[in-house]
Amino acid sequence: MAIRGLLRVGEVCVRVFDIDEARRHYGERMGLIETYQGDPDKLYYKVADEHDWYSLVLKKADAPGVEYFAFRTYEDAEIDHFAAALTDYGLAVEHVEAGVYPKSGRRIRFTLPSGHVMHIYADKEKIGNGMPTRNPGTIPDEGYIRGFRCVRLDHVLLGGPDIVKNRDIFTGIFGFTVSEELVTQEDETRLAVFLSCSNKPHDIAFILQPEGSRFHHVSFLLDSVNDLFHAGDLIGKYEIPVDVSVNRHGVTRGATIYFFDPSGNRNEVFTGGYVHYPDTPTLTWDTSQLGKATFSQDNMPRDSFLNVLT
Amino acid sequence: MAIRGLLRVGEVCVRVFDIDEARRHYGERMGLIETYQGDPDKLYYKVADEHDWYSLVLKKADAPGVEYFAFRTYEDAEIDHFAAALTDYGLAVEHVEAGVYPKSGRRIRFTLPSGHVMHIYADKEKIGNGMPTRNPGTIPDEGYIRGFRCVRLDHVLLGGPDIVKNRDIFTGIFGFTVSEELVTQEDETRLAVFLSCSNKPHDIAFILQPEGSRFHHVSFLLDSVNDLFHAGDLIGKYEIPVDVSVNRHGVTRGATIYFFDPSGNRNEVFTGGYVHYPDTPTLTWDTSQLGKATFSQDNMPRDSFLNVLT
Amino acid sequence: MAIRGLLRVGEVCVRVFDIDEARRHYGERMGLIETYQGDPDKLYYKVADEHDWYSLVLKKADAPGVEYFAFRTYEDAEIDHFAAALTDYGLAVEHVEAGVYPKSGRRIRFTLPSGHVMHIYADKEKIGNGMPTRNPGTIPDEGYIRGFRCVRLDHVLLGGPDIVKNRDIFTGIFGFTVSEELVTQEDETRLAVFLSCSNKPHDIAFILQPEGSRFHHVSFLLDSVNDLFHAGDLIGKYEIPVDVSVNRHGVTRGATIYFFDPSGNRNEVFTGGYVHYPDTPTLTWDTSQLGKATFSQDNMPRDSFLNVLT
Amino acid sequence: MAIRGLLRVGEVCVRVFDIDEARRHYGERMGLIETYQGDPDKLYYKVADEHDWYSLVLKKADAPGVEYFAFRTYEDAEIDHFAAALTDYGLAVEHVEAGVYPKSGRRIRFTLPSGHVMHIYADKEKIGNGMPTRNPGTIPDEGYIRGFRCVRLDHVLLGGPDIVKNRDIFTGIFGFTVSEELVTQEDETRLAVFLSCSNKPHDIAFILQPEGSRFHHVSFLLDSVNDLFHAGDLIGKYEIPVDVSVNRHGVTRGATIYFFDPSGNRNEVFTGGYVHYPDTPTLTWDTSQLGKATFSQDNMPRDSFLNVLT
C-alpha cells in the first residue's frame, strides 16, 4: 500500500504558437532541461530533480491551452483496473500502445466531464536527476539547476464545466482526497476543487468555467522563498508578463508567482504549502473570503486570475 | 488508492527521567503544544501544524529510549488486514481496545525483529492546527507557533539487529519503498535502511545495532533553513547539548540539527529533502562515503552520531 | 573618521488619529516595543535590535502625516557645526534644550525646503537590545522579537517641493551621497532622490510633490525574505490595508511590503538591498522604466504608491 | 562627513602555492570573477556586486598567508593626512606611485605593530557590477553570480602580537570603533579585537598570536542563509577542506562557514550580523564563553579555528 495508483501529474502537454519562443521561455529563461528531440513541432522538458525523461511537452498549435495531461500510476496492472472503472463510469477509454509517446509505456486516454483529455501510464524511461544513485551527493554539477531553479513539475489547474463530476471521478475511482474547495457564499456551489493523492496539498485542481478543456496553469516547485524571489527577479528582468507577483495563496498556503509564457499560457512557480494526508480535514473557502482564499497577503481577488484561461 | 495503509508515524512514546525537565525542554523551549493531561507520569504534545490531539508522548522512566512508536493507518479495516499479515509473518500481534491510549481508537501492538514495539491505529481524535476549517487563513494566532517553530513530527530513526527483516516487513507487508540505504563497502552489509510510505524521503529508518530496541532520534519538521537557524540560535542560547550542529544530510538531503533532551534522547529538527515517489530510484551509499552520506557539508562522519543511542 | 556626522534616522514622529488603534497596530500587531509613557497623547516605540530608548513616536493629531524626523549625529560638537552651516545656507535653526524630548540631549530644529521639520541630536539614553553587553549571546529571550519581527527603523521617504534643494543640503552640508535618483525621461527633472550616509542604499529619500511636508512612509528592516513573508502573512491575517504586497524595488533592490496604519500613514517592511559606499556609482532611473524602478518583479508602477501621501 | 576616511578592505593579497589550483578554487568553484591578467604569478578577482576592478589578489609564493591588505579611503587628500598621522605615531610610511598596482592610484604602505603590511589608496578603476548605472535593473545576466554566489569581499581577520597597538591605530588614527572584543576571564587580556568603520559589525579584526603577520581568514558576504547552505553544499560536493561547517558566530552574529583554499589559507562565507553604528555599545566576550563567542549554535570552541593560521 503506501502510495499506490495515481502518483503524480507526470506529463503535461501545452500548446504554444512558436517553438523557438517557447524554447527561449521554458528552456533558456526558466531553465527547464530539454531532453528529447523527435518532432520539430514539439519540445520535451524535464525539471531538475525529476528522474523521468520528460514531464512537460510543448506542441506547436494555432491556439494556446492544454492538449492533455497524464498521470503516472504505480504499476502497469492498475491501468486496466482504472480503464475498467472509467468505462463503468461511462467514459470512453482509448488504449494507446507503448512507444506512441516517446520513452513511454502503454497508456489509456479518455476525456473528463470537464472536457480535458487525461492519460494514465505506468512506465516512462528514466534519465536521472543529474546525480548517480550510488553515493549520489546532494547537488548536481553547476548549471544543471539554473534559471528559475525549478525543482519539479508539481500540479495543474484546469477549468471547465462539471467539475463536481471530475471530483467524483478523482475521489471515487482514483481515491484522491478533496484537500480544499471554494464555494459560493450564497448556495455552496463548488467553484473550485483541489484534489490530492499525495502529501502535497494538491496534485490537480479544477475551477468552474462555462467552456470545457480550459487551462489555468501548470506549476513548478521551488525550494524556498529565496528561490521564489530569485525567480521573481528574473521574471522582472526578462519582462515576462506577470499575472500576480509574489504572494501567498490562502488555498494550499503556497507562496507563488503567476506569469505567462509567450503564447499566453499561465505558469506558476511556488514553494511551501502544508503537508497533506488523506485524514487532513478538508478546508472550505467561500466567496466572502475570495481575496484571502486566492492571495492571502493582501486579500485582494484578481479578476485576471479568476477569468483568464487558455 | 492514492495514499493508503500506513500514513505516517502518528505517535512516538519516549522515556524521560523527569517530567518537569522534559516539559521545559519539549514545551517551553522547543514550543511543542501540550494538549492533554491524564497521567502525572506522562506528557502529551502535538506539533503546531498537526491536527491530531497528540503525536509525542513522554513517559517517566528509569532509562531513556523509545517505549513504542505508532503508525496511523488510513482506515480501520486495514488494522485487521495488517494483523493477519503480521501474524502470518510470525509476529505475535496483540489487540488493544479503543480508549486505552487517550483519544485513540483500537490498536494492534507487536514487536519488530529489531526489538521495537510498534502500534497501528486508524483513529485519533482531532484538535486542529489552530485555524478553522472554513476560511482558515494561513497562519494561526501569534504564540501558537513558537520556540523552535516546529511544524510536524516527521520520522524516527531506530537501532537494532535484524534491520533487513524490519525492511522486509515494511516493504512486503506495509508496501513501503526503500528510499536509501547505507551499506558496507566491503560486502554490502546493510547498515541503515530508509523507508518511505509517502512523498517524504523517509518515514522511518533503521540503523544496525547489536542491541535491540534502541532509539536514535525523533525528528521534527521546520519550514525553512531560516527557521533551522532560528532553532539553532535557541539551542545555543539554552545551552542544549548539541550532537551535530547545522549541516545537510547526504541521505535524504535534509538540512539538520541534532541535539539531546535532558534525558539524553536525541532530537532532530530538519527542513528540506527531496520529494519522494515509489518509483524514485533507491539511492545507495557505501561506507567509502560515510561522511558524505551522513553530513554532506563537511563530509565528516561523527562517532557520536553513529554510536550514541538510548 | 569612519562614520561621522549624521548617523541615521534615529527618530520619526508620526501623527495618528487614535492612540489605542495605533498601539494595536504598531505594538500588538507589528510587535514594536513600547518603552516610555510620559504623555497620554504619545506613544514611544523602539524596534528590537535598536539600543536607544525609542525611535518611533506616535502623536495624536487631527490629521496623519509626519510631525518631524530626527537624525542622530556622532557627537555633540557636530550639532553646532551643522547649526552654523544650516544658518549660513539660510535656514532658521532653533535650539532645543536637553530633556524637552524624553531621554534626549539637546537638539537643533529646522525646516527643510521641502517643508519637513528635521531635528539633529547627539544623545539619547540607551535601553539596550534585550541582550547584555558582556557575553551577550545572539538572540534575546523569546517574545522580545515578535509580530512582524522588525529589526530596526531604517529610513523615511518624504514628499514635497524643492527636493533638489533638500538634496543639496544633505550632500553639501551633511555629506550624504546620492545613491539613486529617478528622473523624467523628457527633461531629467528629478522626481525622487535617494540619499545615503551609511552602507545602506538610502537613509532618507525625497519624492517631488507639489505640497510640502508630506509623508510617504517609514520603513522597518527585517532579517530575511522569510521574515518578510511572515510579516506578509500577519498583514493578511489582520486585514491590514496593503498598498503593495511583496515585491522587490528596482531602486535599492530591497524586498518590500507597503501597508497602512489605521490613520492612513504608509509603513514599509523590507529586507535586502545592496551594500552602499560613498564611491558606489549613483544609479539613475528614468520614467521610461518607472515600473521597474519602483517594483521590479512585475515592472508595474502603482498609482497609489506614487500619489498617496499623508 | 557621513562615511569618510577608510571605507572598506578594498584589496587583499593572499599567497598561494599554485596559480592553477588557486584559479580552480577561487574562480571555478567559488565563482569569483577574474578581471585582470597582467602577471603569470598573480590572479585578480572581483566579487559579483563590487564595482572596482578587483578586490582579491592571489600571488604565487612558497608559503601561504597574507601578503598585504589595502583599505580604500574616501578621497586622495586623506592619504596624506593618514601618512602624516602614521608617521607621527612612529610607523615608517612608504609612498607608492599610481600604476604600480594595476588600475590603482597612488598608495601608502606601512607595517602595523602586528607585522601586517597595510596599504591605503583612494582610487581604483571601476569595472561595474554587471548592471548599467542607468535603469540598472536588480539582477545581472545569468552566470555573473555563480558558484558560492558571493556578493562582496567583506573583511579580514589577522593574527599577530601587539593587537592592542593595532587597535589604537585603527581607533585613534582611522576613527574605527571597537565593536566587540574577546578577553581572558582571568585578567581581561585582549585576545581579539573587532573593528568597524561602517555599518558592518567588523571591517577588520585582529587575534593575538605570538608570531607576526599571520593570516586567519578572508571573508566573503552572501545574501542569505539559503545561499550559505548552497555554498555549503558545493563545499561538500568539491570536498573542499572544512574548518567549521555552518554555524553562527557569537561575535558579530554572522552565519558562517570556514574552509581552506588549496594552499591552506582559510576562507569564510558568511551572511547576516547586526547593523553597527559608532554609538553601538562595545560587546565584550570573555573566555568563560569562548565557545559561544566563536560558534554560538553549539557553544563549542574549535582548536583549529583558534590556532591554525597561515
TrEMBL record, chains A, B, C, D:
An annotated Gene Ontology molecular function: ferrous iron binding
Entries under SUPFAM superfamilies matching the protein: Glyoxalase/Bleomycin resistance protein/Dihydroxybiphenyl dioxygenase (SSF54593)
Domain named VOC: residues: 8-123, 152-272
EC identifiers of the protein: 1.13.11.2
Catalytic activity: catechol + O2 = (2Z,4E)-2-hydroxy-6-oxohexa-2,4-dienoate + H(+)
UniProt entry keywords in alphabetical sequence: Aromatic hydrocarbons catabolism, Dioxygenase, Iron, Metal-binding, Oxidoreductase, Repeat
Repeat as UniProt keyword: yes
Needed co-factor(s): Fe(2+)
InterPro entries reported in the protein's UniProt record: Catechol_2-3_dOase, Glyas_Bleomycin-R_OHBP_Dase, Glyas_Fos-R_dOase_dom, VOC_core, Xdiol_ring_cleave_dOase_1/2, XylE-like_N
Recorded coiled-coil stretches: none
Keyword Ubl conjugation in annotation: no
Assembly description: Homotetramer.
Family under the similarity heading: Belongs to the extradiol ring-cleavage dioxygenase family.
Protein name per the record: Metapyrocatechase
Gene encoding the protein: xylE
